[in-house]
């Protein structure tokens, strides 16, 4: 029998995590950058003591909200292109359940994060314990079962030796390009404290490297044959291009073969916005240039994208009757969507092999050359939308223009999530470097923004991390603003106050609905609130200012560069103005019957628009 080490189960987890390594830019580094922890009775005695023992090698970071810290962990993994990640530990009950939303974010976006919630007693002697949910028909259920649907791998540890295979399976999932996503190890609180003679080999340093599957010979041949016949090819680049570190290969492929490139929300920054073949965003929030190519394309090479409805215009965007799709993706599920020709492979390897096989083949010159005037037309429209204004209430686009001009350089990372800003940023923000645009739009999670910005800053401390957030999302979650200050991680946060949920109000109006329950003025409230976001941010330790014009906003951003901690700049904006140029129809079901003529008119337009949809 080999050498063993007697540890509690929780200690075994901590020692295992600190021994897992990876290679980034030629340097071996811990694959777990740290553990976010909010302690309670379900983890303070077990995991808390264990993490204290390894604090020099595996830092434990304290947050203010379990959902917020989990968002930060998710954002860290995204900003690290999935090469490194973090763990999160909480007590049982509400502490654990607070992480469910962030688990959903990680699952939808295929991002690695390890959740370590405490659980009830495995021996059940003290039952029911504080915060325990009692299921009258199933004695094995606890609140942590809610993690099952938002975890790539779930395990409940009811004996200390069970952690051995569970930890090994955990690492396989977190590092696998196909299965990558959140892992939940539900740790019964009594078992956390139980000791076991663990094999010493479990704690030996292990280096994890990125697996790069190469394509099947037949699939590759089929993709090459399809591309060679293309007269109007288009590349749609998704987040998988960034996670594969395939940006150089994408740039070379597009240039070599003269194919325009459109980008999804997750794929934006895979090709610099100023590249002549980068047509910008595609789909519902797309540029006029990208969507024009998408509508006429006869072959679409979809690289590292899951083809979400915002990308496909709810599958009404691609209007060429003979269009063929090639799905270059590590995940067969994504590669074969909508009868696509699957090319199951790593994005970097797949693009290299495709380019080698295509040799000197190029798209027709007249087609490639049409990219220039289309892009020029779009950029003129974008410049008009983002130009400074003296209006009492500027638009989101005008605020974006001010931020771009003052802090949108090569060293900046733009962070945002739900609401109207993602649509405007997807169209208008000019990303210059891979990872310079960080948008959570897979789950479209309000409240991700500030916590996500903190995670990005931890992953990229050298970057100017800029968070743009509406008042609605700010009110949902702002606690990690204080955490950023505690940890010395400076963010620049621009709060756009349109006094309600402006984006969904516009959608409500667009579907014929009355203005109701979205903007504060249209809600059933006794008193119109006047929230001082500047004072609130300042009370949490930020350097904060409120500005009243675009010119003042630019001045404030310039001044914030000299601040030694997180800076918050607040500006009032118009809730109704949005960039009309670009974009595409999106399938939002309109009521079939209504006493309101506006809804009936919207329904008629909806039925007509649905006729352009394809059924997969």
UniProtKB/TrEMBL annotation:
Enzyme class name: hydrolase
Pfam assignment, any one: TPP_enzyme_C
Alphabetical UniProt keywords: Hydrolase, Thiamine pyrophosphate
KW Zinc (keyword) present: no
EC number of this enzyme: 3.7.1.22
Annotated ranges, domain Thiamine pyrophosphate enzyme N-terminal TPP-binding: 47-131
CC per GO annotation: acetolactate synthase complex
A molecular function GO annotation: flavin adenine dinucleotide binding
Stretches assigned to the Thiamine pyrophosphate enzyme TPP-binding domain: 419-571
Single biological process term from Gene Ontology: L-valine biosynthetic process
Domain Thiamine pyrophosphate enzyme central: 221-352
NCBIfam families for the chain: myo_inos_iolD
Family: Belongs to the TPP enzyme family.
Protein name, as recorded: 3D-(3,5/4)-trihydroxycyclohexane-1,2-dione acylhydrolase (Decyclizing)
Organism: Shinella kummerowiae
Gene that this sequence comes from: iolD
């Amino acid at each position: 029998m080999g050498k063993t080490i007697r540890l509690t189960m929780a200690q075994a987890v901590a020692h295992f995590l600190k021994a897992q390594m990876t290679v980034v830019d030629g340097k071996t580094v811990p694959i777990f950058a740290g553990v976010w922890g909010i302690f309670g009775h379900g983890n303070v005695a077990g995991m808390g003591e264990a993490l204290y023992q390894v604090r020099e090698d595996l830092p434990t970071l304290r947050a203010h909200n379990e959902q917020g810290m989990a968002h930060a962990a998710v954002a860290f993994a995204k900003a690290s292109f999935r090469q490194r990640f973090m763990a999160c530990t909480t007590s049982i009950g509400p502490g654990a359940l607070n992480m469910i939303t962030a688990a959903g974010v990680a699952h939808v976006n295929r991002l690695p994060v390890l959740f370590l919630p405490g659980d009830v007693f495995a021996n059940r002697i003290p039952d029911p314990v504080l915060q325990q949910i009692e299921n009258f028909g199933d004695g094995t259920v606890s609140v942590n079962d809610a993690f099952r649907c938002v975890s790539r791998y779930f395990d409940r540890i009811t004996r200390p030796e069970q952690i051995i295979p569970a930890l090994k399976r955990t690492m396989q999932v977190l590092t696998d390009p196909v299965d990558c996503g959140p892992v939940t190890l539900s740790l019964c609180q009594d078992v956390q404290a139980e000791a076991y003679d663990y094999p010493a080999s479990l704690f030996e340093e292990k280096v994890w490297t990125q697996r790069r599957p190469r394509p099947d010979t037949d699939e590759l041949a089929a993709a090459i044959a399809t591309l060679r016949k293309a007269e109007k090819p288009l590349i749609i680049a998704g987040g998988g291009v960034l996670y594969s570190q395939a940006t150089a290969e994408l740039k070379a492929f597009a240039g070599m073969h003269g194919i325009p490139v459109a980008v999804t929300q997750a794929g934006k920054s895979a090709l610099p916005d100023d590249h002549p073949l980068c047509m910008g965003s595609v789909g519902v929030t797309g540029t006029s240039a990208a969507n024009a190519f998408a509508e006429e394309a006869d072959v679409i090479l979809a690289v590292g994208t899951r083809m979400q409805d915002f990308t496909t215009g709810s599958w009404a965007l691609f209007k060429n009757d003979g269009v063929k799709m090639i799905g270059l993706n590590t995940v067969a599920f994504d590669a074969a969507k909508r009868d696509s020709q699957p090319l199951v492979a790593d994005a970097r390897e797949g693009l290299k092999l495709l380019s080698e096989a295509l040799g000197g083949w190029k798209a027709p010159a007249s087609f490639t050359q049409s990219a220039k005037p289309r892009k020029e037309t779009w950029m003129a429209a974008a410049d008009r939308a983002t130009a400074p204004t003296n209006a009492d209430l500027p638009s989101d686009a005008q605020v974006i223009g001010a931020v771009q001009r003052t802090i949108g350089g090569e060293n900046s990372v733009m962070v945002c999530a739900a609401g109207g800003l993602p649509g405007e940023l997807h169209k208008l923000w000019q990303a210059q470097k891979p990872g310079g645009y960080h948008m959570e739009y897979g789950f479209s999670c309000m409240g991700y923004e500030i916590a996500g910005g903190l995670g990005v800053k931890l992953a990229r401390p050298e970057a100017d991390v800029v968070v743009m957030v509406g008042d609605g999302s700010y009110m949902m979650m702002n606690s990690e603003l204080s955490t950023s200050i505690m940890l010395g991680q400076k963010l620049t946060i621009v709060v756009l106050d349109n006094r309600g949920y402006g984006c969904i109000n516009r959608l409500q109006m667009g579907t014929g609905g009355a203005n109701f329950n979205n903007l504060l003025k249209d809600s059933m409230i006794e008193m119109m609130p006047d929230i001082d976001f500047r004072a609130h941010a300042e009370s949490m330790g930020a350097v904060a200012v409120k500005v009243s014009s675009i010119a003042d906003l630019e001045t404030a951003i310039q001044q914030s560069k000299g601040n030694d901690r997180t800076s918050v700049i607040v500006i009032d904006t118009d809730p109704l103005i949005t960039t009309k140029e670009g974009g595409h129809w999106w399938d939002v079901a309109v009521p079939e019957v209504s006493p309101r003529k506006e809804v009936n008119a919207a329904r008629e337009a909806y039925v007509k628009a649905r006729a352009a949809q394809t059924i997969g």
